[in-house]
Amino acid sequence: MATRTQEEIRLEAALTHTAHWRRWGPYLSDRQWGTVREDYSPHGSAWDYFSHDQARSRAYRWGEDGLLGISDNHQRLCFAIALWNGADPILKERLFGLTGNEGNHGEDVKEYYFYLDNTPTHSYMKALYKYPQQAFPYTQLLEENRCRNRREPEFELLDTAIFEDDRYFDVFVEYAKRSPDDILIQITVINRGPEPKTLHLLPTLWFRNTWSWNGDRSKPSLQKINANHDGSVIATSHPTLGQRWLYAEGQAELLFTDNETNCERIFGIPNPSPYVKDGINNYVVSGDQNAVNRDQIGTKAAINYVLTLTPGETKTIQLRLCDAPNLLTPFGNEFDLIFSICKQEADEFYQRITPFPLDDDRRNVQRQAFAGMLWNKQYYHYIIEEWLKGDATAPMPPPERKRGRNREWFHLYTDDILSMCDKWEYPWFAAWDLAFHCITFAMIDPDFAKYQLDVLTREWFMHPNGQIPAYEWAFSDVNPPVHAWATWRVYKIEQKMYGRSDRQFLERVFQKLMLNFTWWVNRKDVEGNNVFQGGFLGLDNIGVFDRSAALPTGGHINQSDGTSWMGMYCLNMLTIALELAKTNPVYEDIATKFFEHYLYIADAMNHIGDMEESLWNETDGFYYDVLHLPDDRQIELKVRSMVGLIPLFAVETIEPETLQQLPNFKKRLEWFICNRPDLRRNVACMETQGVGARRLLAIVSRDNLKRILQKMLDESEFLSDYGIRAVSRYHAEHPYLFHANSMEFRVDYEPAESTSGLFGGNSNWRGPIWFPVNFLLIESLQKFHHYLGDSFQIACPTGSGQMMNLWEIASELSERLTQIFLKTASGHRPVYGGTKKFQSDPHWRDFILFYEYFHGDNGAGIGASHQTGWTGLVAKLIQQLGEYEAQPSDELTFPPKLSATETLRG
User: Fold this and answer.
1) What range does the domain containing 323 cover?
2) How far is the C-alpha of 283 from the C-alpha of 213, rounded, in Å?
3) 333, 360, 387 - which closes a domain
4) How far apart are CA 567 and CA 172, in angstroms?
5) For the segment 198-243, what is each residue's pLDDT rounded down to a tens digit?
6) What does 679-716 look like in DSSP terms, one character per residue?
7) b or e along 698-736 (b: 16 or more beta carbons within 10 Å of the residue's beta carbon)?
8) What is the CATH number of the domain that holds 266?
9) In this structure, is residue 273 part of a structural domain?
């Protein structure tokens, strides 16, 4: 048996509860202010109720944020860095950005920071923050962006010229675990500028305020104690976390205050305590000697290192947070050795994940994609009942809240580590985003991936009616039903990479998803014709109208994508049921039920109700939404968009071995083939065996597949050098126009930022490239190839004469998506567009940002800059391309169990 990596051993120990390697991690949010959780306003004005300016002075109710920090898994004790360059009006304790109301394209972080490395147990973590040496241009960023309209680009921090002459500090923060509760911290500061500069570096330790809201008297404490080494020690005591000690090297001033709201500054009333949240800020920046507790006790503390660095000089500070008192030598050779070992173990783990030959650039992109996924974990705490009712020690919330946001989700109670899309721009879970996150997580930490999928279907998340919560701004919104797909993919990835088939996980989630499927059928099929309206469906502004609002025409829209998503959902549930039926025949009946439901949905795509309405346009060779007016007229909304490609997602193959194992299901399938020609008429190839005697279930027929792909692979329409656009470039010259009630509605090809304010205006589905739908297109093409084989070929690109089978086209799309991040022959990365600093500076060019979406023509990153979430799928694409290139055996199997001789290090 091959020796397992140390990280795999740690993961096994965490799973079996023999060692709590997951207790500490990067669970601090990058932004807690401006969130729904902290909003107690009458009308849900979250951005205005709790601002960045208030954040340094006002205690949070539901979570904490910080700069490149960590916390325990219930966020009782937090650690992060704070910085001051001697010029800023405030300490840099948290990232700054514009709110949804301030940015010309919605909320946007205005900082440069990079997640460089991380392991699933957070045994090693590394990140970088670039801190300007001149006063941070808070006002300039606000005012300039306010002046810009939606058709102008965003005004970024680099545009202020604050990084000219490299007048900034690189601040690297690294963490290494000797044991689950012994965390070594190393902070490295480099002066990149041309002159000597002084930096105040303040490693900060604090408790989340849990005592101010409900009269809890069990208040934790931090206090200075005598050190047995040349440095300082802060002792911590918490009623449930117990005791910890923070060791800090060298001589530096210790500053203590309390994590309490500065009521005088925020509300204009006297402070109950003289020591408040912004006390350390006021002491360091303003010189207020009374702002910190001279008794050196409190609930927030910092060590104030004052570092003067010459040009190019590097200085390093070491700290250690652990559960061991009275350490004699917390630093020194052992400290350095542990860091070295943890880095090496991280390298070994990721080499095991992708053992195929990759060039250094691809491996770097993949490694940072994994790092971004792991750094975007966050402690997410939200109890709707308490949030609506208010706290015993606070004023009663305004009564309007009980008729406002999320009032139907009274049962929701979250106290979990969840995967965020982007911990600054979207510091909350989003159900359909999270499903895609789990695909990448399954490669490196299948147990975490499975927990994410499972927990959203548990009774403290899922609504009693079966709905899965969408996201905190509107839990009742409707996202594409991809949970079953992700559940199946995680199951299969773990099976292939780790040799484990977790049927219990599969069955547990499947049972809950049957409730969710029923909710969809009961709520989103208005006319009972198996055609689904859906609504928002995650694609923000892709439609002619705001799909979350009432139509200006009245009536409803029969959605090509809504119906196709449900077809895909049926097939995902069918696939899971067939797998479970192999060991439990009860699931054969359930599989049959989903098979039947799928037939109805697939047929309805082309024959809706008595009028035989169709979502397929035979002339155009494309699927469109159909507007159903109150007077029963139907109007095709002829927009060439991803909506018309999503029917490709509803595809699955059935192996002949599966049918042999499940005779009852086979019998029912054959009965439908023989007796219901009306239902099988538009279910592609159900009755014809393909390659390997497989059966194909697909909404799109062979002929229609070719016609759709001709458009999809046309570089003047959907196909970009960097993937598939969300809206065809055809609409650049031919915008779609619709008139109703003296208003004009239009859809143009907009390859960059949105020019509309729909959904805050900070995302755009009218032209850019989005990873999640591209990933599903790739997978769908692979499934079609599984049935059709190499003989089915089509020109790629359209008109090129270069014929490819569907597997080759899927690989071509994967490569185009990957090229967004890779260096071109000239050394430039498309993701950074024309930003010279990122393209040429050796201290910037190899740090990768994983944006929310990408310019439809040049691949430049747009939107949230740290949405590794679903953009982290590039790590999976890199692995797949490496595997295809290497052509190894079909199964990459990891050693399934710990051997008796393998033990935990440290």
Assistant:
1) 18-333
2) 27
3) 333
4) 48
5) 999 999 999 999 999 987 778 999 999 999 888 999 999 999 999 9
6) HHTTSTTSSS--GGG-EEEESS-HHHHHHHHHHHT-TT
7) bbbbbebbebbbbbbbbeebbbbebbbbbbbbbbbeeeb
8) 2.70.98
9) yes
